[in-house]
Amino acid sequence: MSDTEQHQRYTFTFGPRETRGVVLGLGMGSVLLVFAALFALTRLASSGTGGLLAGIALVALTVAAVWVPIAERPLVHWIPVAITFALRRLLGYSRYRGGPAAPPAGSARSASPAAGGLDLAPLELPGELAGLGLLTAQVHTRHGPRSIGVVKDRRRGLYTLVISTRGSAFQLLTPEEQDARLMSWGETLAGLGGSATGIVRVQLLDTTVPDSGDALERHWQASGGQGSPATGESYRHLLAQARPITQRHDSYVSLTLSPRRARRQIRTLGGGDRGACAYLIQQAQAIQRELRNAGVQADGALAPRQLAMVIRTAYEPGARWMLERRGPDMHTTGGASADEAGPMACDADRWAYYRTEDTYHAVYWISEWPRRPVLGNFLEQLILGTRCERTLSVVMEPLDPRKAEDDVSRRETTKQTDAGMRHRWGFKATARQRRERLTVARQDEALASGHGLYRFLGLIRVSAPTLEALDQACGDVELNSRGLKLRRLYGEQDAAFAATLPLGRGLRYGPLQ
């Protein structure tokens, strides 16, 4: 037997999505709603048979609203979503108009030198992203000074930097090499755990976009490979045929810094925006070294115009080819300026999709990850098998070890209490409930062994120029999402779209909880 056959593969095990609550998996709001219905029943029962029947009907409706799922969500969870969606439409907040149609920017939105000596260019973005600004930080490299774009969330006081990455042929490596790279990536995440680094979000993005083919044509022209008229015509014909089917993957890693967790380090680097950006760049450089050790090619942090282009093309994918024709120099004329980063129009008045410019988007939440043990390439079919324009976003929050221990202890106590109540009431524990308890026990063991814990959110954004094409693209994604449980975020498409941008949104600091 060969060494490869004897090698024990590195596998991942995901527990079921945890049903948290105060009693029997119910949240405080649901518990209060049930008690209110029972109280109403006692009051109505004293008024006679009619009141008793009305009270019983009220309790039955309340129990159904709390326990019976509609589209995999209890009705009580849909109520705030529907109310928020209706109010936004009624008040006109579901529509955004940028450019000349935008309302005049106030003083909080004007470009000005920020504290710390860096200029802050406002980003005109809709909804929850209003109030973001783009800082330009300078860093000295062996090739000379270069600019790095840092997004500042002025409302929350957060800074986000985006690193461009390129993967390698992971599927062509031997099992030993694959597992070695996975372990290196695990060590990278472990190094970000805790509060010492100040990093509160790590976001991984992979975007599949149609390739205009301009890079291939420029390479062919620069190489002087004209050849004879016959071969030249043949190459031109081949490049023209490849344009409609050529795809490329744009991959990014974004880091979000909370200055409150790194006050001392930022103060030693000058304080303010300048110190925060300098410290965030230091963390990004360390992460890039770790990524290279894990076999990921890191091309460095995005320049301001490059970062603005990434945001712009998310809202308007059709602008990608026009922006790419400006050239590769992202420090002068290439990419997009901060003024061009935002969309001209966005409509969030539809329940199932979000429209920006001339593009329709549908965002899915990965509510369940594979239940069975899987290898590190379990997302390969989704990443390489889809032919539509889609973005996979995974936002992770490193948890402070002490807070993680308290959270795990509290959840374990809740699980034990629920199990005791079910046993007293004659309910048998389900396999899902037993697996939830096992997942909590594994997390407790991991913390005791010195590992870190992360909260994470997985989203998939699908984009298309028409609704018919969007339906086909959604079917393509659903077909290739084997082992994943996808849930379309009805009524929250605009907030979900914002969480798929490389800005570290979602989880606690974003609109999605």
UniProtKB/TrEMBL annotation:
* Positions of transmembrane segments: 20-41, 48-69
User: Which InterPro entries is this protein grouped with?
Assistant: EccE_dom, SCO6880-like
Q: Which UniProt keywords apply?
A: Membrane, Transmembrane, Transmembrane helix
A Pfam family reported for this protein in Swiss-Prot or TrEMBL = EccE
Question: Which residues does the UniProt record annotate as the domain Type VII secretion system protein EccE?
Answer: 247-366
For this protein, the record's NCBIfam families field holds: SCO6880_fam (NF042935)
Q: What is this protein called?
A: Type VII secretion system protein EccE domain-containing protein
Q: Which organism is it from?
A: Sphaerisporangium album
